[in-house]
Amino acid sequence: MENLQNLPLDAAISKLIDLIVSFGSRLLIAIIVFFVGRWIIRRIINVVVKAMQRRKVEASLFSFVRSMVKITLYFLFIIILIGILGIETSSFIALFASAGIAIGAAMSGTLQNFAGGVMILLFKPFKVGDYIEAQGQSGTVKEIQIFNTILSTPDNKIIIVPNGGLSTGITENYSKEETRRVDWEFGIAYGDSYDKAKEVITRLLKSDTRILTSPDYFIALNSLGESSVNIVVRAWVKSPDYWNVFFDMNEKVYKTFAMENLNIPFPQMDVHIKHD
User: Fold this and answer.
1) Could you count the other beta carbons within 10 Å of the beta carbon of residue 10?
2) 264 and 213 in contact (C-beta within 8 Å)?
3) Is 70 exceeded by the pLDDT of residue 191?
4) Which residues lie across from 151 on neighbouring strands?
5) What are phi and psi of 58, to 5 degrees?
6) By three-state DSSP, how is residue 44 classified?
7) pLDDT-derived band of residue 21, with 50, 70 and 90 as boundaries?
8) Is the per-residue pLDDT at 93 higher than 50?
9) Tell me, what's the pLDDT at 1?
10) Which residue of 125, 127, 152, 215 is surrounded by the most CB atoms within 10 Å?
């Protein structure tokens, strides 16, 4: 570009006006392209979303693909806008690549989270809707994003867990299998009939249709404690019924033991006073 300082005043003004008009026209085109392009991107994303919905794509993959498509389209959109404004795109891409290396080194954790998200979608240790426990947190998987997984706790809190730790750490998935085993331990007082307690528990288990017969339930005398005779009870239920069966059986045993004159003991100590 010719230096304006070396031109006569009239030529310099004319040249400046030409530059302003040229840049203004590019800016106007860029603004129009911005609004039109943003509308097109939204339409493309909607088409992709509807296509995945028609094919009934798994919710975990659905959110991940939607995020990836959105980021890719907006990145290409920015490149196009820069080219319209007259900035050399090849130089910009080279600069972006160089900056990407430096940013990548500084954001290794973020890249690890991205790789973790890909690993989760490939190997599927859990999916949207599963109840999991990982990284010291537990909740129902609400969404699997590019960098994070969103958990919803039973008390309606939202927990954001980075995918990097989820993909490399230990994860307990309580929804993976169709059935789960419920464990209880009930105590009766010394002197109470173990056979009667076992018969009462058996009756309660058989009366609950949510408890499965295969595998069958298990009842045994587990230990002789300091203040109680402890009975272990194990039964299999469908995974969604786990907590309802657990709490219901606790309530039923407590009420029924009282009606059957079976005592649920509490820690106690006998004190003997000796007079000299």
Assistant:
1) 8
2) no
3) yes
4) 141, 159
5) -55, 140
6) helix
7) low
8) yes
9) 47
10) 127
Q: What is the pLDDT of residues 167-176, one digit of tens each?
A: 888 889 998 8
Return the higher-pLDDT residue of 168 and 246: 246
Q: Which helix (H) or strand (E) holds 30?
A: helix 9-54
For 230: left if phi > 0, alpha if psi spans -120 to 50, otherwise beta; the answer is beta
Mean of per-residue pLDDT scores for the chain: 81
Residue 262's closest CA among 188, 191, 184, 204? 188
CA distance 152 to 275: 63
Calpha distance 229→109 (Å, rounded): 53
DSSP 192: S
Inter-residue contact 166 to 112 (CB < 8 Å): no
Q: Which single residue is written with the structure tokens 């010291």?
A: 136
Between 128 and 205, whose confidence is greater?
205
| Tokens describing residue 205 | 């288990």
Q: For residues 175 and 161, what is the distance between their CA atoms, to the nearest angstrom?
A: 18
Q: In what order do the strands lie in the sheet with 137-144?
A: 158-162, 148-152, 137-144, 131-134, 171-173
**Is residue 99's pLDDT more than 80?**
no
The reported pLDDT for the residue numbered 189 is: 92
> 162: cis peptide before it, omega within 30°?
no
Task: Quote the pLDDT of residue 206.
Answer: 94
Q: Tokens for 39?
A: 């509308």
Phi, psi of 43, rounded to the nearest 5 degrees: -65, -40
Structure tokens at 87: 């900035």
Question: What type of residue is 158?
Answer: I
